[in-house]
Structures are given as C-alpha cells and as structure tokens.
Specification:
disordered N terminus, mainly alpha, disordered C terminus
Amino acid sequence: SFKLSYYNEYKSYLSMDELPSLLQPSRPITVRQGACDLLLGVTNDKSTISQIISDRNILSRVWDCLSDEDKKLSVTAANILVNLTAEQYIPDAHVIPSLLAMFHSEKAFFLYNGVAMILNNISRAGAQAEILVGQIYPADCQRFVGILAQGKEQGYLAGVLGNIALSGKGRELLVREDVLPQLIGLLTYPGNVLVRRNIARLLRNLAFDVKTHSALSNHLPQIVYPMCGGEELDEDDMEKLPLDLQYLPDDKEREPDLQTRVLISDTLFQMGSSYEVREEYRKWNYYVLFREYDRWEQDDDAREAMQNVIYIIIQDDGKVDLRKEHELPTEVETPDSEDVVKLSDCLDNNDILDDKATSDISNTQTSQLESGS
C-alpha cells in the first residue's frame, strides 16, 4: 500500500524504461496495478504510443498482465491493448490463440468486451484479417454467436466476424449452415444496435462475393424482415410473399437504426448481382415489401439504396447495370475507418443500447470493463 501511494505520487518522475521492471509478475500486485494505470493513461496520448509500441519489453509485460489471475489488473491490461491496437499496433500472430481461448472460458467473461475490441482492431484490414482467419475455427465462430446471443458482450465480436468476412476463407467459415442461420438471427437482436449494425455489415461483406449468394438466399426472409412494417397489402400481393413475411402484425416496426437499414439494402443489392437471386426477388414478390419500405423511409441516401434494389427487380436483366460476377470490388478489402475502436468509444452505452430490456446486462458489463469487479 505504501509502495503504491509513493509510486502514484511520484509517477511523473518515472521513465518508460522503469515500467517493465514494475510490471514483472514477482512485483506486488499494487505496484503492477499502479504501473498499468500509468501506462493506460499515456495510451491516450498519441505522442507516447509509438514509443510504447516499439518497446517489446513493455508489451510483453502487458500481455502477461492480461492473463493474470487478478481481474482488475487483467482488465486494465486489456484496456491498454485496446488503445494500442487502435493506433496501428499489430501483435504477433502467436497471441491470437490465447485471445480466442478466453471466449471459451466462462471464468474470463469480464474480459469478453476488451478482448473483442482487441480482435476487432487487429483484424480491421484485409491482410490482418487473413492472419486471424488462419487461426480461427467454426467452433470459435459458433462460440462468438452464442456469447452475442446471450448478451455477454456488447457487439464487437460481431465486428470481428464482419472483419474476417474480408477473407475468402473467412467467408467460407461464415456461410456454413451451423453458423450462418444463427448470425442472421442476430440481425433482429433486441436492444443492442451495435450487434445489429455489425451483423448487417458482415452480411454486406459476404454479399460482395457472388459465391456466398446461394447460401444467403436461403435466408432471404430473415434478411428482409427488419425492413418490413405492418402495412396492409392487397390479398393477392400478400399471398405471393414468403410465409414468414405474410400477415405481419400491424404494430411491426422496422429497424430503427439508419446505418443498419442502409447496410441491409446494400446487401440486397449486391446479392441481386446473381441472376438466381433476382429471380427469387421476383418469384416471391419482394418488390411490394421494398416499395412499402421506400414509401416509409425519410432519409434520401437510405431511399436511394433501396431504390437500387427495386431497379434490379423491375428492369430487364439484359439492361441491368451490375458488377461482374466472380470479381470482388475493392470495398471488400478496405473496412470502414469507424471499425477501429478505442476504450473511450465503448464506455458509453448510449450509442449501443436502444432497448431497456438489455440495458441492465450491458451496463453491468461496462462497469466490469472499467473496474474489473
């Protein structure tokens, strides 16, 4: 206790070279925690981040702290790594299996958010996503989906899955029938906009690859469902719809998040580059659902995204301007800059939660992320 107060009082006189010694496992937990607290503070300063990233001794000690039995210390270490990986720090590939293994341990639940953010950051570009994909297995994807479905993580795992969709092998993993239906089920996950938005982004990344269209089209009603309202349709139009989309309740609400709606429309458009999918749209009368959505939508960009889908349905196939099949666009190689997360991005639930039903769970997780309790 005395050492910690002395350390905190005079920490401004400590040099970076002294930190590895203070972080050694043989040091008292109070000293190691104090050193991690200091390190976390300076990771918010870009001028010192490059120095930290270049010091392998410090990085090695931080990774040691991440797997420490003390919860508060391991959470602080995770927060440090979140901020470092947000600033171009790419860990060695050998740490990935240990990160993935944490999600298979219920005892490590308090680390799920932090480790998910680390994986999200280090997989945000195509080459980095390939490294992760080389070490991830279907069981990991299934576990991620289970954690998300149970509300045990705030939604960054969905971002990780969206990132691995940048890789051909990753797309093969995600369209498996023991993974894809559960993923699409999260598109209507109540209360957490980050989960739904990241799942929608994942589906859009998948849809850029024509080889995924057959698997995706097997779940078209589930993909379209968030865009549907409860409008009354003509009986003839209603009877032509897929059974899952017929006679929806009058109070059925559409997806409230604008970004998610646009991503779903983009997904439907990319899927429409396959003739078979366009025929599915026509056969099952999806046009009337898309028309009603277009009438309801207030945002011009979102309306345009849906109108692009309507266009490929009503136009003759020979006149439709579509991407060449079997040719991936450049977008699939470059994820959005917003995919990078820092600790400051994830501590406020206001942008994540939109339903009180799950707010208590997510608020508890955020508290654990901050305090390690």
